Amino acid sequence: MKIGAIRGKNLASLEGEFEIDFTVEPLKSAGIFAITGSTGSGKSTLLDALCLALFDDTPRIHRASENNVQIVDVKDRTINQKDSRNLLRRGTAEGYAEVDFVSLGGEKFRSRWSVRRSRGKSDGTLQSSELKLTNLTAHQEEPGRKTELLTRITELIGLTFEQFTRAVLLAQGDFATFLKATQKEKAELLEKLTGTEVYSRISAAIYERSKNVEQELNAIRERIREVELLSDEEMAKLAVEKDTLGQEMDMGKKAVEILTQKLKWLVDESVLKDGIGEAERRLANATKAIEDAGPRYFYLSQVDGVQEIRDSFHELKTSGKQLDGSRSYLAEQEKLRDANVLLLEKSTRNVALCEKTLLEHNEKFESIEPKIRQARALDVRMAGAENLAKEAKNEYRQAEERQVKLKKFVAETQTAVDAGQKTISKLTAWFEQHQAYREIIPRIDLIVNLLDDAAAATKQEAINRKTLDGTNALLDAAATRLTELTKESERLNKLLPAEIAALRLRLEEGKPCPVCGSEHHPHSRIGGESLEEEALNVAKEEVANQMAILSGRMENLRNENIRLASVIENYARQSKEAIDKLDVLLVAFPDWKTKLAEGHLPRLFQSVAGTWRKNESLAGKANEQAASFQTGIQLAKEQLVEAEEMYTSKEGKFKEAKETLEKLREERTGIFGGKTSDEVEKLYIERRKSLSEELSRLKEERNNILAAKEKQEGVIQQVAREIAKLSVRCDALKERVDQWMLSGREITIERLSDLLSKDQAWITAEREQLNRLHQNKTTAWATLNERKKTLEHHHLLENKPAEEETQEVLRKTLADSQELIRRRTARATEIEILWDNHWKGKKRIAVFEKEWEEKSALSGNWKKLNEMFGAADGAKFKVLAQGYTLDALLAYANKHLRELSKRYEIQRVPDTLALQVIDLDMLGEVRTVHSLSGGESFLISLSLALGLSSLSSNRMKVESLFIDEGFGSLDADTLRIAMDALERLQTQGRKIGVISHVTEMTERVGVRIRIVKSANGRSRILL
Fold it and tell me: Which of 298, 302, 296, 301 lies closest to 747 in space, CA to CA?
């Protein structure tokens, strides 16, 4: 990569356009050249232009660490201190930076960065910067947005911004520090200079990942312990209970279906009866509506009878209206004709008067033309003076505004600093007041979760204990009832023991009884059994059934007690584990259990934690702002001194220009009262034009009035003829209507007019409405008959309820059945949920165990990596990796050092990042870097800088090199050594530019680019 030319305009102190072309003499043949100038003249601005055109960034702006600092731009607007547009010179409306370079492929390109202000004004708003890339070899512009073009430039030159500033722009001062830095500092500097920060991130990531995997293993163990499973005995009991519930629900559903059908029958009967009543009412209403519409039927017949005279009657009315309108229009036109006669006389007088006024105005204009020429000469002189005064005034006001703004900025910034200090003090006091929370804030989420777990476990334990007490009470009551039934069973057995009853059933007629020996057995069969024995057997069977049911219920209650006791024990254990962990975490809060019992401890911790994090953020921002404000105040005060000097200078210039302008204005005021010659001439010309236009308008108006008068005469004659025709037609039509009314029809003209007012749409609608009344009656009659038949069919249905089964009885019975089904369904659902939770729990345990095995193996690997490379601060792997990076750097550096001086060689102290120097002239003596002289340190530092350049660009040839170094701090001997080294360095084929203001150094360089300062912070470039 090679730089061909650097151009720019209005960048920092370099006002106007400038160009440095390395392809023309004397720079073309120069292997080394110097960029010289006094401090602040703009030497580094040339390198800023180079970086702007290629990367939209510069080293100086890139080093600004704070992104949120805003500085004053123009008026009340600000700009971020890291914004590259800061390099646009103040007081200018546009600027650019342009670079010609040769890409890795050998093609020539031109990159142009530009920025402007809105409206092309120096006080306009800064617009977004633009980038343009042109292929000079192919003579075409590269397409794409700015971000795409920046990526394209990186590809063409093969260097990122960081690599470019290490390979092309050498900041050699960093390596002077590097020689005597600690190992940790060397590792950090190597990261910064070589871009290998990834090793620190890898080391910290390994540590964090190992820690996270271990935490994940612990979390899996906790989740396995939290899963609850049912025993086999519990599963079997639930299966039996679910089968019983299913049978009961089937029976209940059948009963509900029958009850629902009976209820529906009663509801349908009520609806049908209501429908019959409604149909009877509609039939009565339809009949009455027909009777009430009698007058409407008569009126419609009359309307039909007058339709034969409709056309003549309506034509008579229309002709009469036209006759009246024509007579009114005739009278109106006659009035307009008389008015136009008067207007015509007035218009003729106005035309004559306007012709006279125009003639007088032309004579007056010829008399003032000499004064107009004199005024124009003075206007030209005044315009020049006004421009000078305006420019002086603008500069004076800008200086004044800048002075006021700087004073205001200093005051406001100082106020902000004071406010920030108060905020910091207030936050510090708050942290001291809540010092006890410092240790628990990082673990506040864990503590709150433990508090919630303890509270939830305690609550569930109490709920289950209450349930256990209830089941114990039920069990005691069942035991008491079982004792009563046992006694009753014993009493019944005494009346007829079960053995005797069984013995009687085995007796056979003709065979002896084993008790009495009789062969005749009158009570051996049921048929012969007494009524008392039959009732006794029924009672014994009923008691035995009740005892069996009660025994089963007691067994269920005992099983439930066992389950509840296990659940209570589990919740008690969870509560104790949480409280034991909290005792360790909350050792600084001895009364935490009391506050937990009050119920507001979790909210208190969350509130304090939220406030703590918020205050930490506020404190960090306040400290950053305080440091930023202090820097801003110092810079503003320096600028204020310069602004005050500028203000005094501009004020005197403005007063001088103002006095000159006032003298010219006094002289000019004597002619036309200060009015401009163009204004006076324009007034006369406009007046003459106005009078000419007015004369034309008056003549046109007179012609229009005359034409209108003639037109009205013709209209009046035509309207009179139309009136005569309409009168004859109206008389004929009136006679025809009168004859129709006299031909046996008893009807008045008013009644006729009313009847004929109804149009055909009204007649059709009225006839349809009257016909609809009959249709409604027919429909109502048919509906009534249909509903009666439906009711008769309804009474024949099979699901008709009995007389005593009213809706109230059926609804109550249905509700009881549905409630029973609901309870059984709810219990069945509970059993399903218990089963589902059991199987899900087993699956979860299997998944957790598999995950634990995978995580365990992964954890072992990460532990090994962590032991080798991991560290919370990333230092372990960083130091190890940067050792290899340092070895590579020293290999390049020693290669350059042998070309600069064959006496020294740089080595790494074994197993460290420390450096030592081998003095070959002293038979390989090892020297510490702290024993080097200034010249020796410079040579070694320069070789390190060149080594870094080679390390950053080892895959390409960098033919341009700029060294921006503070040579002013070197003594004469060291400076001589440095120049000898640089002169030998150019033999490597690089074009080297050295930026310095040291006279002794620049005198040894044949080709110099001089940056010369002038007034008002301006500089110019001389070659």
Answer: 302
- CA angle 250-253-258, nearest 5°? 130
User: And the tokens for 566?
Assistant: 């296990």
- The two tokens of residue 954 are 């080892």
Does residue 26 have a cis peptide bond before it, meaning omega lies within 30 degrees of 0? yes
Listing DSSP states for 57-86 in one string gives --HHHHT---SS-EEE-STT-EEETT-GGG
Q: How far apart are CA 448 and CA 603, in angstroms?
A: 8
What is the Cα–Cα distance from 797 to 285, expressed in whole angstroms?
33
Q: Are 306 and 696 in contact (CB under 8 A)?
A: no
The Cα–Cα gap between 963 and 625 comes to 34
- The position carrying tokens 């080294």 is 981
Q: Which amino acid, residue 16?
A: G
Give per-residue pLDDT as tens, 963-994. Answer: 775 565 556 666 676 677 666 666 666 778 88
Q: What is the mean pLDDT of the chain?
A: 77
SS3 521: coil
Q: Which residue reads 């290899």 in tokens?
A: 884
DSSP three-state, residue 918 = strand
- Residue 904 backbone dihedrals phi, psi, to 5 degrees: -115, 155
Distances (CA, A) of 278 to 24, 781, 789, 791, 977: 113, 11, 15, 14, 124
Residue 300's identity, in one-letter code, is L
Dig out the tokens for 826 from the structure.
């709810």
- Written as six digits, the tokens of 284 are 């009565």
Q: pLDDT (tens digit, 9 = 90+) per residue, 169-219? A: 765 454 555 666 666 666 665 665 555 667 777 777 888 878 787 777 777
Q: How far is CA 72 from CA 69, 77, 399, 843, in A?
A: 10, 6, 15, 66
Q: At what angle do helices 198-226 and 875-900 cross, to 10 degrees?
A: 170
pLDDT at 149: 93
CB 996 within 8 A of CB 967: yes
Confirm if 177 and 169 have CB atoms less than 8 A apart: no
Cis before residue 514, ω within 30 degrees of 0? no
- Report the amino acid identity of residue 597: A
- Closest by Cα among 949, 947, 955 to 889: 947
The CA radius of gyration of the chain, in Å to the nearest whole number, is 57
Element (H, E) at 709: helix 677-742
Please list, in sequence order, all residues whose beta carbon lies within 8 angstroms of the beta carbon of residue 551, skipping any fewer than 6 positions away: 482
Strand pairing of 169-170 and 904-908? unpaired
SS (H, E, C) 140-175: EECCCCHHHHHHHHHHHHCCCHHHHHHHCEECCHHH
Running DSSP on this structure, what letter comes out for residue 790? H
Phi, psi of 594, rounded to the nearest 5 degrees: -65, -45
Distance CA 412, CA 636 (A): 12
Instruction: Name residue 78's beta-bridge partners.
Output: 72
CB-based contacts of 179, cutoff 8 Å, min separation 6: 915, 929, 932, 937, 940, 941, 944
Closest CA to 936 of 914, 952, 921: 921
Q: What integer is the mean pLDDT of 81-106?
A: 88
Taking residues 72-92, what's their average pLDDT? Answer: 82
* Token code pair at residue 129: 């910067």
What's the residue count for the chain?
1023
